[in-house]
Amino acid sequence: MAQLKLTADILNAALEGYTAQKVLLDNRIAEVRRMLDGSTGRTSSTEVAKPRKKRSAAVRRRMKLAQQLRWKKIKEGGEPPQAESAKPKKRKLSAAGRRAIIAATKKRWARVKAAKKAAA
What's the whole-number mean pLDDT along residues 13-34? Predict the structure, then answer.
């Protein structure tokens, strides 16, 4: 394997890269130390959030019943979904139509086979 020549430019670039990594690591170490000490700087978002409202069991039950009633009204009184009514009805093929298609197919294949026989 060939040895790289370490010029001053390469060494300076390496020094700058390692210095940048050291600064990044120092910042992360300081952040972990702040967490361990209990002092919360910009990392904590729990203090900013509002505390949740506490509701009694009776209030939660009334809310549940009201929501169930709303959904029941929607399900019972609602119109059928548009997707079902928008589907076209499936058409059926008559017996005469089926016979015509079969006859045309047989006629076509007879021509194809005759053309192959003539070519051979």
Answer: 92
Q: What is the pLDDT of residue 9?
A: 86
Question: Three-state secondary structure along the chain?
Answer: CCCCCCCHHHHHHHHHHHHHHHHHHHHHHHHHHHHHHCCCCCCCCCCCCCCCCCCCHHHHHHHHHHHHHHHHHHHHHCCCCHHHHHCCCCCCCCHHHHHHHHHHHHHHHHHHHHHHHHHC
Q: 42 with 48: CB under 8 angstroms?
A: no
More confident position, 91 or 49: 91
- What residue has token string 């045309």? 104
**pLDDT(97) > 80:** yes
